[in-house]
Amino acid sequence: MAKMKRDRHPMPLLDAAVRVNRFDEVALGYTLEMAIEEAQRCLKCKNPTCEIGCPVQSPVKDFVALLAEGKVAESVKRLREVNRLPAICGRVCPQEEQCESKCVMGVKFEPVAIGRLERFVADWERQHGFGELEPVASRGVKVAVVGAGPAGLTCAGDLAALGYQVTVFEALHAAGGVLMYGIPEFRLPKEIVETDVRRLEEMGVEFRYNVLVGRTVTIDDLMEKDGYSAVFIGTGAGLPKFMGIPGENYSGVYSANEFLTRINLLRAYKFPEYDTPLKVGKRVAVIGAGNTAMDSVRTALRVGAEQAMIVYRRTEHEMTARREEFEHAEEEGVQFNFLTNPVEILANEDGWVTGLKCVKMELGEPDESGRRKPVTVKGSEFVMPVDTVIMALGTTPNPILLRTTPGLQSNKWGCVVADPETGATTRPGVFAGGDAVTGAATVILAMGAGQKAARAIHEYLEKQAAVHA
Ligand code: FAD
Ligand code: SF4
How far apart are the CA of 2 and the centre of ligand 2, in A? Predict the structure, then answer.
């Protein structure tokens, strides 16, 4: 028997010097040989703890075992029974904190590279063609999904598979939510999201774009006039936070959401071929150190910044960005200013940003989040010359739906109140999940919420049908 490889297969990457000027995907993906070899590291555990680590309980052991035998079509078919967006999850999920963190191989060696294998089988399927969809008998019952992010897409797919007539209402002109407008092409090519959306259309899901529910139409309209028997709210958390420091209104200050949307969705870097302009300076400071900050700073480099830097009041150890993204950013030449906190944005007489006034910080006692609280170092003020500032400090849900939907309760953070197991809100027939409920979180948690809500909506509608029979 061949000797087991202890370490995982490294992911082939586009060279940093090449990739920094373009939007091509950084991670190149495994070859078939690499994928099979990596899959053969799996121990086929009796108790596959990796699956407990996955919020949608992807059948990791089964799909990896099929791949290890070279049965790629069967492998992806098994995975897709549970996970509707495997090519996306394989690229952006924090597997190191989920399935891979629970992998038994990881106790002594490196865990099986589950995410890379997930990506491999999903990409293989896209290249070799999707299998025929099994026909589903229609129940003739309409369900509305508000928001086409990972929560909404998962809920819509699961309900369509159960025979419901699903319509997704999306405020933007494209489906995908953050997958389309937030996460850049070099991490998640848009064609992958579009393919998964087309797959849902083939299942019968209808998409209506440029519909802002709460303004164009209300949830009351959908349920009382348009005949939808249930509604799922998956509207995310797209409202950016600012620091509240002087100078945030100057020209050259962006929220990360605006900056990334202009580039990813509206292709501003191709202006005037595309309609949206974008002015990015030579020295760009991004405030924050999560995934959004890392995406913004790496994007700034790709649209012409000569110096792109992260400004973060804590240290490398408290950053919430995925380790891999931090490393890729470092390789690309991003500068990291840790223990640095902005206190004012400076501008010239025309109102254009010229600098960022900062103070140095040191770590004090742990705060309520358990992380050591940064404290200002007295007399440490200094000015960083920059011409663009991007605020990547997190987001909250947009209040429009809550304001226009009677009976829908929110919590003190402006999130929709919903049962974590079913997504049921305080309004009968209305369910919710994803960032709209939890605040900014992850793709897989949003998908898990969409999956649970689809099950709960089905149960609710079955009960309603029984009552009215
Ligand atoms: P969203 O993806 O926000 O989708 C909500 C959708 O609803 C949007 O399309 C929006 O236009 C629409 N909508 C909103 N209001 C209305 C309305 N009233 N009517 C109609 N439509 C409406 N997570 C990871 O796991 N890995 C990562 O690497 C990662 N990177 C990220 C990078 C960035 C830049 C950002 C911003 C987030 C990142 N995240 C990442 C977080 C992740 O993308 C989100 O947690 C996830 O997309 C939430 O899914 P959702 O379906 O709840 O909402
Ligand atoms: Fe394979 Fe790791 Fe899951 Fe065990 S825990 S089945 S080794 S992937």
Answer: 19
